[in-house]
Amino acid sequence: MNRVKLALGGFATGALLMYLSDPDRGKRRRALARDKAVSAWNDFATLLDKARRDVSNRAYGAACGVKAAFGADHPAEGPALVQRVRSRMGRVVSHPHAIDVTLEDGRIVLYGPALEHEVDRLLRAVKSVPGVKEVTNRLVVHRDPARISSLQGGVPRESRSEFTQQYWTPALRVAAGGAGAALLWNCLRNRSALSLCGGVAGTALLTRAVANREFRQIVGAGGGPRVFEFDKVVHIHAPAADVFAFWSDYEKFPRFMTHLKEVRDLGGGKSHWVAEGPAGVPVSWDAEITEQVPNQLLAWRSMPGSAVETEGVVRFDENADASTRVTIRLFYKP
Fold this sequence. Notes:
This protein is α+β, with helices and mostly antiparallel strands and about 325 residues long. The chain contains 8 helices and 10 strands. Among the domains are: about 80-145, 2-Layer Sandwich (Histidine-containing Protein, Chain: A), CATH 3.30.1340.30; about 160-220; about 230-334, START domain (Alpha-D-Glucose-1,6-Bisphosphate, Chain A, domain 4, 2-Layer Sandwich).
C-alpha cells in the first residue's frame, strides 16, 4: 500500500514538474502560479483582518446592548435617530431606498412607495427603534410592484440564522474553515468510519467557507439563471441621464469588463454577447431587453436555449448632489 502511495506521489510530482518546465509555456505557467499564490495569500490575510474587525465590532455591539438593557444608553435624537430608523428599515423591507425618512416635530414620518405585505412589519420595526415616540405613515402602498421603478428588483428580507444565510460573515467563514480543515486533517490521520464521516463534513464545511456560497450554487443545482447572484451599488458623479445613456450602449461594455470580448447590437432590443470562458474558450449567448424606463431602469435576460442563462436589472437613482446611484443585480447560471 505504501509503495502504491509513493508511486502515485512520484507520478503526480513528475507531471507537475513537466507542466511547469515546459520549454514553450513553462515560464508563463510558473509566473501565473506565483501570481495566483500571492493573490490567494493576500485574500486570506484580508479575510483574517476582516474577521478580527468583525469580532471586535460584535463585542462592542454586545457591550452597548448590555448598557442599553441597564439604562446606561441614551436614545438617539435628530439626524442620528433618522439614521437608526433607516438602518432598521434595511432589515425588514426589500426596497429601503424607495422610502424617505424625516423627523418632524419629534415624529418620524415615512414617505414613498412600499409593498403592501411589508408595511405592517416596517411600522413595527420603526416603532421599536430606541428614541422613536411616534410614527406617521404617509407611505403610498402598492399591492403589485409592476410599473413602479423604485420597487423593481430588491431583495426580500427574511429572518434567517447566520449559518443559513447566502453570504457568511468573515468571522463565521474563518471559524467554519478552521473547523472544516481540522475535521479533514483528522480524517487523513485516522481511518475509522467516524473520521471518514467527519472528513466528508469537513470537506463540505471548508468548501462552503472558501467559496462563500450556498451549496446549491456551488454544485450548480436548481433551475433558472439564479444559481450565481451578483449585487453591487456604485455612485457615479454624473447625471442619471448620462449614466443611463452609457449603460444603454452595451457595445461599450468590453471597455471596462475584461472578460467580455464582444457585444453586438442585433436591433429590436436583442444583442449578441461573447465572453472569455474557462481556459480562454469563448462563450456566446443572445440576450433581450425585458424592460426599459428612460433614466431609471434597464432589465434584460438571455434568450431561451443560450449557452449561458442570465438575467439582470440596473436601476438609476439620482442623488441630491446630482450624482447617480447605480444598483446592479445580476443572476446567471453557466
